[in-house]
Amino acid sequence: MEQQSSTTQEIATNISQVSQGVQEVKVNVNQSSQAANQVTQDIGEVNKAAKEIGNSSAQIRSSAQELSQLAEKLREMAGKFKV
Asked: What is the C-alpha separation between 22 and 28, in angstroms, rounded?
């Protein structure tokens, strides 16, 4: 009877340890999930910023082309004047 009680106690201890282990895994999985969600959000923000930079670059290029055209017209107009 004592041996059976000892075995039962050992089984109960093992079950308790397994339960604690499962809880630790659950906490770690939740933390990993939160970290993954944050990384996903950060990647989205970086992607958005990259698109904004791309749009700004296109606008700068367009403005530079317009400025170049205006400079050429100014040169032509200035060439018509004689001092």
From this structure: 10
